[in-house]
Amino acid sequence: MSSSPLPTLTELNDPAFVAPSQAETARATLSVLMPVYNERQTLPGLLERIASVSLSTQLILVDDGSTDGTREWLQSEVEGKREGVQVFYHPENRGKGAAIRTAIPFATGTFCIVQDGDLEYDPQDYRQIVEAFGQEGVSVVYGSRFLAGLPSMRPANRLVNKLLAGMVRVLYRSPMTDEATCYKAFRTEVLQGIPLQCRRFEFCPEVTAKVLRRGYRIVEVSIQYKARSMAEGKKIRWTDGVSAIWNLIRWRFGKF
Predict the structure, then answer these.
(1) For the chain, what is the largest distance between any 2 Cα atoms, rounded to a whole number of angstroms?
(2) Suppose 33 and one of 103, 117, 200, 210 were both cysteines; which one would form an S-S bond, judging by CB atoms 3.0 to 4.6 Å apart?
(3) pTM of the entire structure?
């Protein structure tokens, strides 16, 4: 498929949510929204992991201007060759948030989740995340790396993660242990109704702030995590931490 323009999302008029029954949760499909930028080495293995998950999944890949052969691999090995997989291409690198925004309107599953293109997170955790939607009144579920202890990561990253979660608790009066987690899952109509402006990693604080301000409760479940290093391709930088802090403050008080 050719690249698609960044969408203008429809505002959700009523944030009220009716929790799915256990039967609905059991047969639900999950839309996996995957922004990809220069992940040629990890992407094949990740797609195999997703395929092994015992859930009916729709996979929406957005190549964000890769230059390492990722785009060519997707075109030759994935696009039009795998059932339930859609691929979109940005002509240049726009950022993780922009890629997620491109994917959102095409999600058709009952639930949707964000998946990075590396191997830090384990797709086997999808099932327990989806199961959490069976709780009464739950429309947003985050996979927390910190509920089961302290995962291995650089001390600076751990400090920023703790700071961001603390800011959510203070600014939004919402229990939170891991605001910056990749595994953010939503009832699909909820995410499609949130007006997002993010371009880069500020997707995380922006969507967190906006779902909380609309009255949704975020439930956390424990997930697995294996951090990678900068040498292995990790892309987030200290400036993204500063941006996340600013965006949590900005969207606590700003109009949207």
Answers:
(1) 48
(2) 103
(3) 0.85
Q: Rounded to whole angstroms, how far apart are CA atoms 32 and 59?
A: 5
Instruction: Please report whether residue 109 resides in a domain.
Output: yes
- For residue 96, give its domain range: 22-253
pLDDT score at 83: 87
Residue with tokens 């929790």: 19
Element (H, E) at 44: helix 43-51
Q: What DSSP string runs through 99-140?
A: HHHHHGGG--SSEEEE--SSSSB-GGGHHHHHHHTTSTT--E
27 has a pLDDT exceeding 50: no
In-domain check, residue 14: no
Mean pLDDT calculated for residue range 28-50: 94
Residue 229 has pLDDT above 80, yes or no: no
String of b and e for 35-45 (b: at least 16 CB within 10 Å)? Answer: bbbbbbebbee
